[in-house]
Design brief:
Layout: H1 2-18, H2 26-33, H3 37-43, H4 47-72, H5 78-94, H6 97-104, H7 113-126, H8 141-161, H9 168-181
Helix pairs in contact: 1-2, 4-5, 4-7, 5-9, 7-8
Length: about 190
């Protein structure tokens, strides 16, 4: 069943690159996937439910990727930490570029960038929280989820707008370099 879902998704995203969502039929998705009609309808009632499901599942996978990598990466050097965490998340996105392109370009009805971020935040709420340093005890965790999700997805928006022309490593280097450049006091040294 996992293999057929992946094939339905692949077929759908290929079709979505060729034409609009409304023009795509379930029959085309099935034919392009080489899996059965019964298999599709066993999983989904129609193309709308199918599209919403793959976006919702990806938002959850995106949040889960963050939640797993953040505590796993050593935190000694903030720039190196940001590079490693960004790289892990960007590699995850790189594997699913066609889906992210569809989401970021609002090609799927009801699956805009804001909807994706809201779904990711919803998943973050259900995950075990990272332990906060004492200096961060007053941090509103909702604010943290919101900013982390919306800020990072903006990096992905830029990456997609360039046709994903940079590698995940190059993008992670840019994100880490931006952190250093924006470090308190650094911006004031721009003379």
């Amino acid at each position: 069943m996992v293999r057929s879902r992946a094939e339905y998704t692949r077929a759908f995203l290929e079709l979505l690159e060729q034409k609009g969502f409304e023009e795509i039929t379930v029959q085309e998705i099935i034919r392009k996937s080489t899996y059965s009609r019964a298999g599709f309808y066993r999983l989904f009632s129609d193309k709308y439910e199918f599209a919403q499901t793959i976006v919702r599942e990806e938002a959850a996978d995106y949040a889960q990727t963050w939640a797993e990598c953040m505590p796993a990466v050593p935190r000694k050097d903030p720039q190196a930490y940001l590079y490693q965490v960004s790289l892990i998340v960007l590699e995850h996105i790189d594997e699913k570029k066609a889906l992210y392109r569809a989401i970021l370009q609002s090609k799927i009805p009801g699956a805009s960038l804001d909807v994706f971020c809201d779904l990711a935040i919803e998943k973050f709420r259900s995950l075990p929280l990272l332990s906060l340093r004492e200096s961060m005890k007053n941090l509103d965790i909702e604010f943290c989820f919101y900013c982390m999700t919306h800020q990072f997805i903006r990096y992905v928006c830029y990456w997609e707008s360039t046709g994903f022309s940079k590698t995940p490593q190059e993008m992670a280097e840019q994100i880490a370099a931006l952190y250093v450049w924006l470090e308190p006091g650094k911006v004031l040294e721009l003379s």
